[in-house]
Amino acid sequence: MKIAILGTGNLGYSIAIGILTQDNFKFKNLYLTKRNIESLDSWNKLPNVKISTDNKKAVRFSDVVIIAVQPKQLQEVLEEIKDVVNPKRHTVISVVTGRKIQDIEGVLGTDISIIRGMPNTAISVGQSMTCLSSNQKGKLHVESAKTIFNSVGKTMCIEEKLMQSATVICASGIAFWMRLIRATTQGAVQLGFDAEEAQELAVQTCLGAASLLVKSGNHPEQEIDKVTTPSGCTIEGLNEMEHQGLSSSLIKGLVTSFEKINQI
Ligand SMILES: NC(=O)C1=CN([C@@H]2O[C@H](COP(=O)(O)OP(=O)(O)OC[C@H]3O[C@@H](n4cnc5c(N)ncnc54)[C@H](OP(=O)(O)O)[C@@H]3O)[C@@H](O)[C@H]2O)C=CC1
Ligand SMILES: O=C(O)[C@@H]1CCC=N1
Question: What residue stretches are annotated with the Pyrroline-5-carboxylate reductase dimerisation domain (predicted)?
């Protein structure tokens, strides 16, 4: 598979790192573009990676085109590549927030295979949660997209109308979970650990909690019940967090984030 990433910024770069470092996915060439390519200079040393400012050239050399520019930059990139996108050859995967498949079809045409993807930056370490939807033609190529994104995490095919929600939960979600981990770390420092130890304790406990749910398939409350000794310290702390609005503030944050996407 020959892959191009148009827009190698925070997310595009993370996707590239993920693709390059996962052993279970073999690609032939990876073409990375951005307008200012100095930051990608070191990538030129890799034999099967090409760096360029030329989006058209990248498309011509690829089968799968991942577009990872900011929403306000998308139209220009689509206009630039529309003449070189070939319905018989290319699958276009847009990871651009808030831009519908219909918007992309409006420039590239309905005969192009278009997939809308929403990965997150954990793709760089092979742990992305990536949601996918496609246009009619793209349905034939969803398996190729799944092959790519399954090699760097998990995928879920969803209806496009849920893509904004998926963006908040999974993509913005990385930032939300980071803040929760940081808060735990701050608490651990207050309770006597130095900063480095505090972060290790917070991160491993977070990983343990997630792994318990992944392995058991249990509801979080079943695992909470196993931890909360009657009249113990856990339920005391948990109830205080809820009195202070833990669940409520998380949900309100997710909904506020969702409302913002609809204005992007
Ligand atoms: N960051 C994240 O965690 C996530 C982001 N997204 C979405 O992914 C997209 C990218 O986000 P993010 O990586 O954070 O943004 P960045 O601004 O970091 O990346 C965008 C990149 O596109 C490049 N670019 C801009 N215009 C062009 C052009 N005409 N041709 C080629 N490259 C171009 C920019 O580099 P230069 O200026 O050098 O051209 C930049 O590196 C957004 O739509 C965002 O909403 C989705 C999920 C998660
Ligand atoms: O903050 C943003 O708008 C983008 C979408 C999800 C992650 N970053």
Answer: 160-262
The closest-lying atom of ligand 2 relative to the alpha carbon of residue 120 is 7
Q: Which tens digits make up the pLDDT trace of 29-58?
A: 999 999 999 999 999 889 899 999 999 999
Structure tokens at 62: 């690829």
CA 227 / ligand 2 centre spacing (Å) = 34
23 & 153 share domain: yes
Cα end-to-end distance, the chain, whole Å? 33
Write the ipTM.
0.99
167 is in an annotated binding site: no
Interval 199-224: pLDDT, tens: 999 999 999 999 999 999 999 999 99
Same domain, 175 and 129: no
Ligand 1 center to residue 141 CA distance, Å? 24
CA 202 to ligand 2 center in whole angstroms: 25
Rounded to 5 degrees, φ, ψ at 217 are 70, 10
In this structure, the answer to whether residues 254 and 194 fall within a common structural domain is yes
> What is the pTM for the complete model shown?
0.96
Regarding whether 106 and 209 lie in a shared domain, the answer is no
